[in-house]
Amino acid sequence: MRTAIVPQCKAINVTNASTEFGLTLMPNIDYVIVSSTAAWIKQAASNPVAVAGDPANMYIPANTLIYVSGDNGAEIAIIRDAADGKASIAPVH
After folding, report:
1. For the chain, how big is the Rg over CA atoms in Å?
2. Which domain holds residue 63?
3. CB 3: neighbour CB atoms within 10 A?
4. I need a labelling partner for 20 at 20 to 30 A (CA). Which of 5, 42, 49, 86 fits?
5. CATH code assigned at 17
């Protein structure tokens, strides 16, 4: 019998420091990110560093679903735009 590997969900605090979700995104899987506060994300193969206001990062408005693909990099970091909050990431089935 084969066992399927199911990607996890992860929730973290969003602060004024770049924080990785601590979840390795899988290729061929789409994910949804939502943050309770406006934030910036950076996706990369390894060790991404999110920087608020940097055009190389993606701005995400508060309480807006953002879809990303694991094909674009295995790790994602997030940093707040102005206020602290919470963010979560989950696979889309």
Report:
1. 13
2. 10-92
3. 5
4. 5
5. 2.60.120.770
What pTM did the predictor assign?
0.90
| Token pair 């990607």: residue | 7
For residue 5, is it within any domain? Answer: no
3 within some domain: no
Residue type for position 51: V
Helix, strand, or coil here: 72?
helix
Instruction: Specify whether the CB–CB gap between 89 and 14 falls below 8 A.
Output: no
Q: Is residue 68 part of a domain?
A: yes
Q: How far apart are CA 88 and CA 9, in angstroms?
A: 7
Tens-place pLDDT, residues 23-77? 999 999 999 999 999 999 999 999 999 999 999 999 999 999 999 999 999 999 9
